[in-house]
C-alpha cells in the first residue's frame, strides 16, 4: 500500500498486521484511482473488518477529521450538521470530494428518507473529476439490490459469506 507513512505507522502501532478477508479483497480496489474503480459494493458478515477497510481508505484521502468522545456526542454533532444542511444549501464545498462511503448501505437505501438523502448527495458530487462511491453492508436484501445497482452501476463486488 502506497499510503502516508504516519498512517502506516499507526496501523502497526495498533497491531494491524494482517488484513481480514474483506480488507484483503476490498482495499486494492478502494485504493485505486477512482476512475478505474468508480463504484464498489462490499458485503460480508458483521465484525469482519468492513469499517476498517473504508476508514483506512477515507483516512488516506481526507484532510479534516472530527473526533467525538462518544456515540451520543457524534450523533449530536451530526444533528447539527443535518440542521444546517450545508451540502443542500451548497455552503459546504463538495467540489473536491473524492470518495463517498455509505456504511450499512443496504439499510440506508432501503429506507426512503435515507435513500433520498443519499441520492441527493450523490447528485451534488463533482462531475469534473471522478468520485469513488463505496457501499458497505453486512446485508443487501434482494429487494434492495435493484436500488443498489442504480445507485452504483456496474460496481466492483466483494462479497463474503459467513464462514
From TrEMBL:
UniProt domain Helicase ATP-binding: residue ranges: 85-158
Pfam family for this entry, one: DEAD
MF-aspect GO terms: ATP binding; helicase activity; hydrolase activity; nucleic acid binding
Membrane-spanning ranges: none
InterPro entries to which the protein is assigned, alphabetical: DEAD/DEAH_box_helicase_dom, Helicase_ATP-bd, P-loop_NTPase
SUPFAM superfamilies for the chain: P-loop containing nucleoside triphosphate hydrolases (SSF52540)
Keywords linked to the UniProt accession: ATP-binding, Helicase, Hydrolase, Nucleotide-binding
Name of the protein: P-loop containing nucleoside triphosphate hydrolase protein
Species: Rickenella mellea
Amino acid at each position: 500500500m502506497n499510503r502516508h507513512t504516519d498512517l502506516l505507522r499507526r496501523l502497526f502501532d495498533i497491531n494491524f498486521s494482517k488484513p481480514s478477508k474483506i480488507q484483503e479483497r476490498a482495499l486494492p480496489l478502494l485504493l485505486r484511482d477512482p476512475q478505474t474503480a468508480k463504484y464498489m459494493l462490499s458485503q460480508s458478515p458483521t465484525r469482519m473488518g468492513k469499517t476498517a477497510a473504508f476508514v483506512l481508505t477515507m483516512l488516506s484521502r481526507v484532510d479534516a477529521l472530527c473526533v467525538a468522545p462518544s456515540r451520543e456526542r457524534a450523533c449530536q454533532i451530526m444533528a447539527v450538521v443535518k440542521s444546517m444542511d450545508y451540502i443542500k444549501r451548497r455552503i459546504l464545498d463538495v467540489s473536491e470530494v473524492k470518495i463517498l462511503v455509505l456504511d450499512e448501505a443496504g439499510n440506508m437505501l432501503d429506507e426512503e428518507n435515507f435513500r433520498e438523502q443519499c441520492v441527493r448527495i450523490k447528485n451534488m458530487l463533482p462531475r469534473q473529476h471522478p468520485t469513488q462511491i463505496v457501499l458497505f453492508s453486512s446485508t443487501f436484501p434482494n429487494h434492495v439490490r435493484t436500488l443498489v445497482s442504480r445507485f452504483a452501476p456496474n460496481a466492483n463486488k466483494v462479497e463474503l459469506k459467513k464462514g
